[in-house]
Specification:
This protein is mostly beta strands. It has 1 helix and 19 strands.
């Protein structure tokens, strides 16, 4: 998830609280739109931004297959790819990870489901964050129709919450994005109309967000467990998905991606912030 910040990284923590206070609670009409950084060198600058290869390549062309793998400086998890229009839905469930915040440096980790972004310049997604505003953990949900501005929800999210999310395309232009917290008892359902989007990939992603200075430090989320994941109503594990590992520009792993089960279960485990 590349990030939404308009402020320098050093001031992100101060801005964070006001962002959450402004966020809405019921729908897109009551959620807050937040400005994002538009960078000329890093395309992925908001949650759910496109996948970035080591070296700053923002667009990835590739196809799945048995044991297919890829590396990215901002994504880890699993993706399936196909021709334009190949995917109409994606969904997953996970347990909200705890952010371990031990330094004064702001750090970020996002967990989401989405269509597009692996080999296209748009992403339609929704998910949650476990961030560090200095030594203070921050948890929240959001949705985004990248490259449009992201929208945060004000609903309570806590570590250990049972989360589920889906993005569904229907008709000629309608996307329905649903984020559900079974533990806290809330659901956000967003309907957006947009034409011309590729729908050429579906993914379940752990992400290090980005700003205009590049990919931001990855918050220590320990391990996130995705208990289910599917695309077009079929488990990702049965579709020869691409396993994505997050690395820095030197190729050193920032987290690990486990194997995926036939039912679509897998995990990502934090290794380092950058």
């Amino acid at each position: 998830m590349a990030r939404r910040w308009l402020l320098p990284v050093a001031t992100l923590g101060l801005a964070f609280g006001s962002f959450l206070m402004a966020a809405g609670t019921a729908s897109a009409s009551t959620a807050a739109h937040h400005p994002a950084i538009h960078s000329t060198t890093v395309r992925a600058y908001k949650p759910g931004g496109v996948m970035i290869r080591p070296g700053g390549v923002a667009r990835v062309i590739g196809h799945g297959g048995r044991n297919a793998t890829a590396t990215s400086t901002n994504w880890s998890g699993y993706a399936v790819t196909g021709a334009n229009g190949a995917f109409h839905s994606v969904s997953a469930s996970w347990t909200q990870p705890t952010a371990t915040c031990t330094t004064r440096r702001a750090q970020y980790a996002s967990f989401w489901v989405g269509l597009d972004g692996y080999n296209s310049n748009s992403v339609e997604q929704t998910g949650t964050d476990s961030d560090c505003s200095g030594r203070t953990p921050q948890y929240y949900g959001w949705y985004e129709m990248f490259p449009a501005f992201p929208v945060n929800f004000s609903n309570t999210v806590r570590p250990g919450d049972s989360m589920s999310a889906s993005v569904t395309f229907s008709g000629t232009s309608t996307f329905t994005l649903v984020l559900h917290d079974a533990t806290q008892g809330w659901t956000q359902t967003i309907t957006k109309n947009q034409t011309g989007l590729a729908r050429s990939s579906a993914e379940v992603i752990t992400e290090a967000p980005s700003s205009n200075s590049g990919v931001l430090p990855l918050a220590d989320f320990n391990t996130i467990n995705y208990s289910t994941s599917s695309a077009n109503g079929t488990s990702l594990g049965s579709q020869s998905p691409i396993a994505i590992t997050m690395v820095n520009n030197s190729g050193t792993a920032k987290d690990s991606t486990s194997s995926i089960s036939s039912g679509g279960a897998f995990s990502n485990t934090w290794i380092r912030s950058s």
